[in-house]
Amino acid sequence: MNTHHGDTEARSSSGLLSESLSETIIGTAIEVHGQIGPGLLEAVYEECMCEELRLRSVPFRCQIELPVVYEGRETGGKYRIDLVVADEVVVELKAVERLLSVHEAQLLTYLRLTGKRVGLLIKFNVSVLHRGILRASSMMPTVLHVSVPPWWVFRLRSSNA
Questions:
Q1: What is the pLDDT of residue 28?
Q2: Which of these, 56, 61, 68, 48, lies nearest to 122 by C-alpha position?
Q3: Integer Cα distance of 67 and 76 in angstroms
Q4: CA–CA distances in Å: residue 23 to residues 8, 89, 148
Q5: Residues near 54 by Cβ (< 8 Å), separated by ≥ 6?
Q6: Planar angle of CA 20, 61, 153, nearest 5 degrees
Q7: What is the rounded radius of gyration, in angstroms, for the C-alpha atoms of the chain?
Q8: How many other β-carbons are positioned within 10 Å of the β-carbon of residue 34?
Q9: What is the mean pLDDT of residues 35-48?
Q10: Closest CA relative to residue 18, chosen from 116, 101, 118
């Protein structure tokens, strides 16, 4: 498991609000997508997301393994979460043509298994990234499709300049 805490102290759930953190993660993904575009492998996007999070001094862990437990016993299998940012938001990255319900179920399962409240599912294989972002909450039974208005994307880019 790779771990990175950036140049800042680890933040508790009472520190950085999930909504603000989600905005930061989405801004990071928009920057990565703007730099390298669609059509690459998921591993490439993950590496670039990690680098961009490091540059922004946002704490994260990547490729987190969770054991598969059945009837109270570990089976030897592992779940693997792409990113957990600031120990608050689960981020699952995809480089697929279209998201399927199984991808949404995967994110919701990761939220349940980790006890985290917020998750983002980011699909990089789109011409405009905001069309590929879904936000989930363990408090809600369904995944929300995120619609990012163009002014918000501009605000994210200009605030990171």
A1: 97
A2: 48
A3: 7
A4: 18, 11, 10
A5: 4, 6
A6: 35
A7: 15
A8: 11
A9: 97
A10: 118
Q: Considering the chain, what percentage of its residues have pLDDT values greater than 70?
A: 76
Extract the tokens encoding 74. 């570990």
104-147, pLDDT tens digit by residue?
999 999 998 899 999 999 999 999 998 899 999 877 655 555 54
- C-alpha–C-alpha distance, residues 83 and 19, integer Å: 17
Tally Cβ neighbours within 10 Å of residue 104: 17
b/e map 51-70, b = 16+ CB within 10 Å: ebbeebebbbbbebeeeeee
How many whole angstroms separate alpha carbon 61 and alpha carbon 54? 11
What are the boundaries of each domain within the chain? 2-159
Of 16, 27, 33, the residue nearest 118 (C-alpha) = 16
Give the residue carrying structure tokens 């805490």.
Answer: 5
Q: 66 is written with which tokens?
A: 């969770």
Q: Which amino acid is at 44?
A: V
3 state SS of 90 = strand
Tokens describing residue 149: 């208005």
